[in-house]
Write the structure tokens for this entry.
Amino acid sequence: MTIYDQDLDANPANFVPLSPISMLRRAAMVYGDKPAVRYGDRTLTWGEAFYRSVNVAAALQARGIKRGDTVAIISANIPEMFEAHYAVPMAGAVLNAINIRLDAATIAFILEHGEASMVIVDKEFGPVMEQALAQMSVKPQIVHIDDSTYKDGKLLGSDSYEDLVNQCPVALDPLQALDASAFLPGDEWDAIALNYTSGTTGNPKGVVYHHRGAYLNAVSNALTWDMGEHPVYLWTLPMFHCNGWCFPWTLAVNAGTSICLRQVREDAVYEAIGHFGVTHFCGAPVVLNTLLNAPDELKRLVKKPIKTMTAGAAPPAAIIQGMQEQGIDVTHVYGLTETYGPVTLCAWRDDLWGDLDSATQSSLKSRQGVGGQMLEGLMVADPETLQPVPQDGISIGEVMMRGNNVMKGYLKNPKATQESFAGGWFHSGDLAVWTTDGYIQIKDRSKDIIISGGENISSIEIEDLLFRHPAIMEAAVVAKTDEKWGETPCAFVALKPGEHLTEEAVLDFCRDNLARFKVPKNVVFTELPKTSTGKVQKFALRETAETI
């Protein structure tokens, strides 16, 4: 024991568990009159959002919800979904935001696996939730959200979300003295959220987040993006996806405004940008591609520079270039459900790259980049030896991370948890190179790399090229079994409306721009199947490729 270990214990005056909950209280105290959420004609201030969240938390506790219970919610990006990110943890419970695109059987599995005590159901998803509940032997409490702007759907149960708001009204003024510890977890390691992986093969795995990680990733988002005070953030990213990459909590850090959309359509996005003065939005490359190919009259609604953050799949450089030319600055980030969303970013070096042409800049921006401010460790390494690969831009290894913004683990799955943390690093399953300037660049998922005649071929490299063809809307490349080479690339292509291409024209384009062994052997024109989060279902394409 040293002198610094004597009579210097942690106490309530000098140690408070890190939690996003404290961010909401500060936003209400300092900027209580500032708009927190806008949805159509509806506006909630930060003071109102705080008041409503505290009341919902009190109502949950009155209904028997306690520490460690799971409260699920299935909802569009509406104010109630935003509030739940604070109200549920305030009650000591764990928020399970369910993917709205899932089928009834998968929803039933998630509710049962997560042992949901309550599920809050936006009426749009009442029909599918009713089907899911019918498959469950033990049913949770049901609370519905009756959004007056949505005319269809089905209300489940007799209790509404507004009943929760009004059940136990707390006369609470955040500007007055308040014991914040009443809302904080006893331990920052306590679970705050449960998110399920996409589960393209077998049942999805439940990823558990803790308060500390959510707090740090929320702050990291604000720093990564240099968001400043009072940004206007458009919800094109689903809040169910890694808790909206932690942005419901980030918006409290800087007292920003959330612009909610029930449906993410190109017209709704551009109209919201023009009407609300949006400064930031997030989305997968498929979202950016949709916006890039929108009618010009919609694009003209962008009146001032906007920042967008993209992740989920490696964005083709052509998409980044197109958005940049439209006045929308792209920040490329990378992460997984297991890392609270984005944990790396392609940090821009204007001093090094500012004078380069736009195509080269876009190519540099398409890399996954370097670790974010709150990530303690990032490397590309041999998964067996844990030895880092050379930073030569050629040697391929697995991306690994460590830090406070890595999950607690997989719920009720100790084997998968131990495997993912082998050697004290989280193993992402993504294969990448490490460039000479220390940036990582993903080449493929470990299961998606194509090995042809002993040569590793990156499907992403071929896809990136195909996206540059002016007639191609979307592209995906997978391995196809070949008797001679073992595997060869097979390309699946979706064309822009009104465009026509032949297989030979696509192959000629590839031959002109790729090494011969990387050129696809087959080209299939089709609509690309996607997961519920918008990722291309390559497992389905691999099955199709084998029938060609």
